[in-house]
Task: structure prediction
Amino acid sequence: MYYVDLFLNGLIFGSMYALMAIGLTLVYGLLRILHISHAAVYALGAFITVIVANATGSIALGMLVAVVVSAIFGMGVYRVLYQPMLRYPPYVAMIASIGLLIFMEDAFRIIFGEQGLTFTRNPYPTQIHNLFGITINTVQIAMIVLSTICLVALALFTTRTRMGIAWRATVSNPTIATSFGVDAIKVRYLNFMIGSALAALAGGLIALLNNFVEPTMGFVVSYKALAIIVLGGLGSMRGTLIAALALGLVESFGTIWVGSYLDRDALAFLFLIIVLMVRPQGLTGAHA
Amino acid sequence: MTLYAYSLLSILGINIMLATSLNLISGFCGQFSLGHGAFYGAGAYAAALCAVAGYPVPVALLVGALVGGALGFVVGFASVRLREDFLVVTTIGVSFLFVGFVRKQKWLGAEMGISKIPASGLGPEGNAIMILLFAAATIALCLYLNRSWLGFAFRAVGDDEQAARTIAIPVSTYKLLAFTIGTAVAGLAGGLYTYFTQFIVPDSFTFILSVTLMAMVVIGGLGSTWGVVIAAIILTLLPEAFRFINDYRLLIYGGVLMLVMRFAPGGLAGIATSVTRRLRKA
Amino acid sequence: MTTLHVESVSIRFGGVQALTDVNFSVQKGEFVGLIGPNGAGKTTLLKIIAGILTPDTGRVMLEGEDVTRLPTAKRVRKGLAITHQIVRPFRSMTTLDNTALAAGYKITSNPLTAAFHWRRSQQSARAAEMLAKVGLAGLEDRDVSALPLGNLKRLEVARALALDPSIIILDEPLAGLNHREAERQADTLAALNAEGLTIVLIEHNLRELVRVSKRLLVLDGGKMIADGEPEHVMSDPAVREAYVGKADDHAAA
Result:
């Protein structure tokens, strides 16, 4: 059962990575910007979840507020930061994005303190369930259920609805937008909105699982999400999903097998570098 | 001069070496690297091992430069194979991988790092002078390379790889060379740092350092050696001059990075150029 | 003497056969036009000749030497010059530097040689000469980012000429130019050919192409369907059907 637990754990982390990485893929696909400050949105979501939950006593309300505020924040980042930079080479927006990330992380530290925050009442991580011999806690169940709902909804939206199809076509090839009669500007806002909402959800769930948020929580996750979109071939949603789950599993098993030589965070990048050496176009990308 | 002044000068010299060598890779040749701290760290650890094993200073410094450059050569290989955006993410990975690897190695002292590194024998004053001489040499090298045909071709590679190929420039070789030279200088700076502190820990070479170095390069102006030197001096001295800045260092770095990219993506050098242009017109 | 020889070149992308058994040669001093409707495979063929793509089968020979597996930079060293359909100047440089860098190809082809050379006067003089040849005299010190498209198209030609090529392949050097500019650019090319330069011109502008080239190749659906004198080729019914019929679509698009 030990390996089954590891497998499940890998999938759970993988699903959180997927929620994070989809936003990056959406932004990269459309604007060719490496949206590194996405991690700050994730941390923002986590902080808002804790603060609102502690103030109102409702964790669900906390997550809802976090998702809405982060979605608006994400659109604001596009409007204020990226939009004026689109006429410059892509590194300009990328460096600015790094700037925003370290700015926000330090702001979180100054406002909320280095120690971070905890939920005043959060019984869920310690509610252990035994399903078919697998031990799993309530937050982990919520992670699986919520990420599945989001990803399935996203998949249905992008394959079954006219707007969704046009949207996906636009993301994979921005010049198509006009021939589909899609408003390219609206699609950009939609990308930042959905991507940021998903990142905030992931942030809130991770906060619940750890019962703890800290200013630098987004840092490492963000770079893993970057690694994932590169592994997925940059700009492909399917590739992103596969790479996210693969990374979750690699970390889960890798920590057991090579944990004494490398820490968990370095493992992701070892995986990235090895894959890129063998397949420079990413796990699922086609040959250039 | 006080001990504090010598240590400040030493740090200044090291930062100038790191920033100008990163500028050689990212500014001259257009290869964005967010892992420069890792090559610096590799050089520092290599030199520390040599020093502890009893090798003389020049050997330890040389080994530091070689190890940094060798690691850079390997990562440069990635840059040859990868799309531009992949490279940035890969170098971020190198940064995390380096620290993650070193932290777990008992022979490198793990979290505790390497302490009791023998002194260079030059004293604080001698160390500072040595470091500043190397920094001056690095600046001279960068200025020379930028004027040579090598720098000329680097610019073409940074501007447009495909077009560079069609005028017979072997792009991959150039990228590899830029990485190797730049990271060898970083490795050398690592060796100097080892003798300066006589005590190194993994946390001195984290991703934040790499970002700080990139900040120096873009604030100074990509490709402008003097701009980058000035930015390195400002970003090193300001937090020392105003202690409160040190408490909010990352907040300020982050804010400045955003503002510079938003309003003056050419950095200090870009501002200087447009000012002189306006003066000439007036 | 055969300068360029393309021998039974074929290539597939996924399920699409982009080129099928393409054969042709270009002799020294020729001025050859290559035409074909959009999607005929012109760009793919150019990429194979330039070394950006490797064909599944067949060979590319330059001056009698097989270069099928050589990278672009090495082919350029051996006398192949290419201009880009969408102009690709080095944006951080002046017009003169763009061309001087090409003129220094012997120095830049080895980075170590490049590191130990810094004087540019000889190459700059040569570059100025090339710029004058294509009609860009007086614009040497302009930043290329400030130049109009017509001048950038000329710069592409000057940069290629600075490489002392034995053959120059131009990818739509007239596209996007107005009537008068296109005529001037075509005249420049004809003059260069008269001086002995071997030219392959890929163009949609049939009027200018028929006027200046001495031989036409027609590519359609990945196959070479005609090869001969321009007037003769243009009256070939197969060419008229394949090219002119679709050219109307092109014009409508």
Observations:
- Chain C touches chain B at residues 50, 52, 71-74, 76-77, 81-82, 84, 88-93, 97, 101-102, 104-105, 107-111, 113-118, 120, 159-160, 162-163 (CB under 8 Å).
- Confidence is low (pLDDT under 50) at residues 247-253 of chain C.
- The radius of gyration of chain C is 18 Å.
